[in-house]
Amino acid sequence: MECILLSTAVLPNIQYLSKLLKYKTVFVEANENFPKQTYRNRFEIATANGYMSLSIPVVAARVHKVPIRKVLIDYSENWQQKHINAITSAYKNAPFFQYYADEIFTVFCDKTDKLFDFNMNLTQTLIRLIGFNKEVRCTDSFVKDTGCDDYRFKINPKKKSMNPDGNFRIVKYYQVFEDKHGFIPNLSSIDLLFNEGPLAYSILKQSCK
Q1: Which end of the chain is more exposed for a tag (fewer CB within 10 A), N or C?
Q2: Does the predicted model carry a pTM greater than 0.90?
Q3: CA–CA–CA angle 16, 167, 68 (5° rounding)
Q4: What's the CA gap between 153 and 83, in Å, rounded?
């Protein structure tokens, strides 16, 4: 297969971004209904206390069968500052945090209305900071048989322990709290970027099988 179909994802993990390097053509599903408890509005980081999951609150969490492109971010609470504080606390001592954090946080503070647009902005920012070019296309309609490798539901926090992806390998790299908690694999790609900086691209490429 030369093409892959992915779900949208907020600050996508290393497995997700490795697909952008591996495949010639990348589609993001823009016409599904929003499912709860997925990477569509969740990402994971490593902190002084270990693994932490952070979620973007959405209005659609209280509504049944909302199209993903219509899902609105809930700004009734200041979750942006809470997330920024958590990321800063986790990575302030990472070697490359100061070089990349401001651009990530700028997107966080934009108050983009829709989750899908917010995710795409963050993904494009990560792609640029890691240092590769990739056109990411959006689907025109929802179909079951896409003709592409279908990873819309395979990169999922619930399936993390199952490791069902034979086209992805875990590559170890430096992590700030590895001496305390051991290496934590497949976190949000900001973990890789803040810890390894210019080497992030090479490590991401090695993750492709």
Answers
A1: C
A2: yes
A3: 30
A4: 25
